[in-house]
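Why do we care about 3D structure at all? Because function follows from shape, and shape follows, mostly, from sequence. That is the central idea of this module. The next example makes it concrete: a single protein chain, its amino acid sequence, and then its structure expressed as tokens.
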Amino acid sequence: MSYTPEAKTNQSLSLTILFAGTLFISASLMFVLQPLFGKILLPLLGGSPAVWNTCMVFYQIILFLGYLYAHTISTHFGQHRQIQIHAAVIILSFLALPLALPDNTTPPTDGNPTFWLLWTLLLAIGLPFFVVSTTAPLVQKWFTNIGHKTSHDPYYLYAASNTGSLIALLSYPFLLEPAIGLAHQKTYWSLGYLILCLLISSCAFILWKTNQKNIIIDDYSPAENNLSVLSKLHWLALAFVPSSLLLGLTNFISTDIASVPLLWIIPLTLYLLSFIIVFSKWNDKTHPIMVKLQPLVLLPFIAYAFINPADLPYWAYLILHLLAFFFAVMVCHGELAKNRPHTQYLTTFYLIMSFGGMLGGMFNTFVAPFIFNGIYEYPIMIVAALLLRPGQNNPFTKGLLLQIIAPIVLISIGVIVYKNIDDLLQYFDVIVISLIALTICTYFLRAKPVAFALLTGAIIFLSLGLHGLSSNTLYQERSFFGVLAVRESVLTSEQNTPEKYHELFHGTTKHGAQRLPANFATTPLTYYSRPGPMGQLFKEYDNTDKNWTIGIVGLGAGALACYAKDQQNWTLYEIDPLVVDIASNPEYFSYLKLCVNNATIRLGDARLSLEKEPDDKFDLLVMDAFSSDSVPTHLLTQEALEIYFKKLKPNGLLAFHITNRHLSLKKVLSLHAEHLHLSALIQEFKPQQDIPLVIATDWVVLAKNPEALAPLNLSRLGNWQKMPLYFDMKTWTDDFTNIISIWK
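And the structure:
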């Protein structure tokens, strides 16, 4: 049941401030908790971007349940009973305070940890997050019943809620994370939650003491049934697509730079900003502008992001994706706001909207990874967003059939060309130019959503197929930790005879390579080459390392195994079972088969695995764990280094791979060396000769005993130098990391 006021309107500004402030604080707490708890969980799962996406799905599920709860109690119970029920729920939620992970929390190592992660989140923060998620619809519904002059249209309060979300998200990486450790963040969040509960109590008190007479309306009477099924499905689609697009883009961009909350926050910030704009009074003016500009933004986006991505620097490539995403969600959310119903259906509207958001997240997390071997849900949702554009919505007649013809013809031509031309790549430039010309043609179909969307989709997927063909992908699969691909490439030898070799990619970052001829098959390449830092290290210790016990964190293609000697004991740590499958398959890489006979492979997060090893076990520990282009931050903290040296012998060496396009990881290790009184050498290696598949790479070697580094320090094989000192940042700990401080 709901209540319709029959009294004089209240024009008090204080009521607006109270209710808007409650929504603001609630949303702020919600969107601080997301990166906060994601950061707490990252160390348990190797820094995978999928941790963030799974957390997002959990939040969307709880948000939907919160909206369902708000809809149910506001339509079935009177005002006083609503307050009593909600008070009981709030009191129950105090059992989850203060925030903390459940005891003895350990993720599974032999399968997908998605459901384990969801269960852990439910136990740790499920109750308080549920209360926070109920606030927006319930408090807005209460506001419609207090007799305020704006009670007839409280949707503007939703803009206040999303403003709180946006400010919280931006504050986290730039204000909270650099200044406050995780322990204090959890404490302050708990205090903020208590303040929110007091504000909700104040709103409930206003509702309780209202003197207005209310008429009970049965929301399951014909009144609610006046909402057509098509309207509800339209709301659902307009919420589903942006939600899926958000997670798809997040996965897409965070795989290529770093698995840290900083980058994850950017798409979510744009997503929230769209809600603020469309649910404000500006939407009537901004929405038509967004609809007109979206096709213009799509032209360079499709041309450079899909058809010919190599022609732009990465930052411009990233900006194009973010712009296309923003215009897509602005158009979808603008349509959602434009079609919002009377306040009588407020909770129904929010319920369907949250349900669509939840379904979008569930599609990306539970469906897409099992049916796609790449992040194809992202381009699919780009096309779906275009289908939802306002335009000439023809019924299923001749008009609609005409809109479908062009995409069908284009796909048919693509299939015919692929089937009948043997060396399609010799026409690569012609095909690219043709696809760019077709992209320009899509602009003239902008008023016809079906033709516009399907033709754009055909161009995108033909482009993806073309690039897949040109990359000679032998194998591609997707796991919780990302998309892995084995590709076959060709290099030309001095005799100008082509030679095939295999490469391993995680996302767009190369994680290893192997030449196929027998005389080169055991030669370590790329970051692990013999002329490079790792080759120098093993050569300098060649006379003393015969009986070493060696640990390698991060398997890759297995190239480091070719430094193994028969008497040595090697333990290889890898978090992703798919990496082990690829490195162990001689059809792709034969390093493990040819180079090492007594290696042990341990699955799971390396830090957790190392903690179980006996102390003083290793003579050499090599840290080569990467999530795409970045070392997971929990492997770089002071506590992590203390674990490594606890497992090393007194004269043991710790070799750290820090090659990175975007982050200056040497700053972090330099501070650790200073604070832990370690000796450290660094080599930022650049090949002096043009040697096939020998590339620039950066390595740091640390030791407790300076004498242990003497062979490297005196080495003439490479340019090893003492670590520079840095004083412009704080030491990274399990409680404190700040990615901004090491951004190049």
